[in-house]
Amino acid sequence: YGSTQTAQEGSNLTAGYGSTGTAGSDSSLIAGYGSTQTSGGDSALTAGYGSTQTAQEGSNLTAGYGSTGTAGSDSSLIAGYGSTQTSGSDSALTAGYGSTQTAQEGSNLTAGYGSTGTAGSDSSLIAGYGSTQTSGGD
């Protein structure tokens, strides 16, 4: 109840109460209550309550409650609760709760909880919890 949802052609949308969501064509969107979610065409988005997530075309985004995330086209983003994550196109980002991470185009970033990291384009960054990491391009 109290939710506003739009499911486009060929999409699958499941949402809790008080949520706002848009599922693009041929996409899958699952969202908890009080969340705001947008999934692009051919994408998959699963998010906990109170989160704000955007999964662009061809991406896969899974996030815990209270998190904010954007998954670029053809990217994979997995984030714990209370985290802020951005993954560029063709990138892979996996991060623990309470972390702030940015994975630029073509990069691979894996980080523990409470960490802050930026992985430059086409780079690989692995960071433990509570750390601050920056990797340049390539």
TrEMBL record:
Superkingdom of origin organism: Bacteria
Composition skew (Low complexity), residue ranges: 14-28, 62-76, 110-124
Signal peptide positions (record): none
Renumbered residue ranges of the record's region Disordered: 1-138
Composition bias type Polar residues, residue spans: 1-13, 49-61, 82-109
InterPro entries: Ice_nucleatn
GO CC terms: cell outer membrane
Protein name: Ice nucleation protein
Organism: Pseudomonas amygdali pv. lachrymans
